[in-house]
Amino acid sequence: MKVSTLEKIGNNAFTSSKIKSISIPSTVTEVGESVFKNCVDLQTVEWKAGYATIPTSTFENCKNLTSFTIEDNIKTIGMKAFASSGLQSIIIPSTIETISSQAFKDCTSMTTMTYPNKGTIEYSNDIFENCMKLETIEISGVGSIPNYSSEKQPWYSVRQYLTTVNFGVDINGVGDYAFYGCSALKNIDLTKIKSIGTESFRQTGIELLHIPTTMETINSKAFGNCKQLKKVEYPPNKVNSDPTMLEESTNIEEFIIYGIGEIVSYEQDKQPWASVRNSIKKITINEGITIIGSYSFASMTVIKSITLPSSVTKVKNNAFEGCNEVTLVELSSVEIIETKAFASLSKLNSIFIPTSVHTIGTGAFRDCTALEDITIPKTVTSIGASVFYNCAFARLEYTSDFTNVSNNNDNYLTYIYNIYI
C-alpha cells in the first residue's frame, strides 16, 4: 500500500489487517498508537513520516516484519513499539532521545543490535526484555561509552545472553559498569580502547583478556570476578591500572607479558595483578622483554617456575621475591641480578647461574632456605652482601678466584658451610 497525500494515521488504523507492505510518506505528521498491531503478514515498511515518534505498539506482534530502518528524524520509540515482532536486527541511530519500556520486548529472532554512544538517551531497563537470541551488540559513535550503574544499562534485560560486544572504530573508552553482569560475554576486542571504567566488565564470561599497548587506564575491579577468565595478555609498558582490576578473578591459569622493552617497576601491592597474585598459576614472559621491573611478580605464591627468555638482561630489585612455591629458575641470558631479586624462594633447591651474569646484588638469593646447590661462573665480577644469607647449602661452587670479585664482601658467604672453589 502506498499513500502519497496522507497527513494523519489514527489509532488502530490497520490493526490485525492482512496488509503485507506499506510506504508512509513524509506528508504524514501524526501517527496514532497500535497502527499496525497484529499485522502478522506485514513484511515491508518504508517509514518516511514527518513525525518524530514511533508510537506505542505500532508494530507489536508483526511476526513477519524482519527488518526496519529507523530514520534519523525519529526521536522517540514508544512502549512496545516493536514488541513480539520478527525483527532480526536493529540499528538505533544517534538521533534517538527516548526509548520507552519494552520497546523491543519478545523480539525472539533478534540476534544483533547497534546502539549509539550517547549518554543522554532516556531508556528503560526492559527495552530488550526476553530477546533471548540477542547475542551481539555494536556500539557506534565516537569517544568513550558513558558511565552506567550496575543495575541500569540499555542492554540490562539481555545481559545474560550477550556473547559479543563490538566497538565502532571511533570508540576509545568504556565507562563504569557498562557491561557489568554480562555473564555470557566472551568476546571483546579492546584494540582501540584507551580507558576502562570501574567494574566495566565485572562478572562477565571473558576467557581471554588482551590488554593492548595503547591502553592508558584501567579502573578498579574492571575485570573483577570473571570466573571464566583463564588467560591474560598484558603489555610491559606503564598502564595506569588499579591493583584491584582483576579482583576475585581467581581462575587465571596463565598471565603473559608480551611486547618489547622493560616491564615497568611497581611498588609492592600496587601491581595490576596484585589482587590475584595468589591464584595465578603460571607466568609467561615473552621474547622481546628486556628488563624485569622491581616487584613485578613479588609474592606470587602459586607459580612453580620462572623462565626468562634470552632477551632479558636484567632482573631488578625484589622482582620475584616471595614466590615461595617456585622450584625452577631459568635465567637464560641475564647479566644483572639486583637486590633481593629472587629472595625467599623457599622451595628452590638449585639454580644455574649462566656465564652471561656479571653482577649479583645484595641479598639476591637470601632466605632461599632449600637452596643446596649453586655454581657461580667466573664471569661474575660483582657480588653484594648477604647474597646467600640463610640458604642451607650442601654445595656452592665458584669457578674463579675470589679476587676477581669486585665489591667483595665476606657477608655474601655468611652461613655457607661447604664451599668448592
Total beta-strand segments? 34
Query: How would you characterize the largest beta sheet?
Result: 6 strands, parallel
Shape label: rod-shaped
Low-confidence stretches: 402-421
The percentage helix is: under 10%
In short:
By secondary structure, this protein is mostly beta strands. The protein has no helices and 34 strands.
Folded structure, characterized:
The chain is mainly β. It has strands at about 10, 20-25, 30, 45, 55, 75, 90, 100, 110-115, 120-125, 135-140, 140-145, 165, 170-175, 185-190, 195, 210, 215-220, 230-235, 240, 255, 260, 285, 290, 305, 315, 330, 335, 350, 360, 375, 380-385, 395-400, 420. It has a six-stranded parallel beta sheet, with no helix packed on it. The chain has a five-stranded parallel beta sheet with strand order 7-9-11-13-15, with no helix packed on it. Strands 12-14-16-18-20 form a five-stranded parallel beta sheet, with no helix packed on it.
Topology:
Elements: E1 8-9, E2 21-24, E3 30-31, E4 44-47, E5 53-54, E6 76-77, E7 89-91, E8 98-99, E9 112-116, E10 122-123, E11 136-140, E12 142-144, E13 164-167, E14 170-174, E15 187-188, E16 195-196, E17 208-210, E18 217-218, E19 231-234, E20 240-241, E21 254-257, E22 261-262, E23 283-285, E24 289-292, E25 305-307, E26 314-315, E27 328-330, E28 336-337, E29 350-352, E30 359-360, E31 373-376, E32 382-383, E33 395-398, E34 419-420
Parallel strand pairs: 1-3, 2-4, 5-6, 6-8, 7-9, 8-10, 9-11, 11-13, 12-14, 13-15, 14-16, 16-18, 17-19, 18-20, 19-21, 21-23, 22-24, 24-26, 25-27, 26-28, 28-30, 29-31, 30-32, 31-33, 33-34
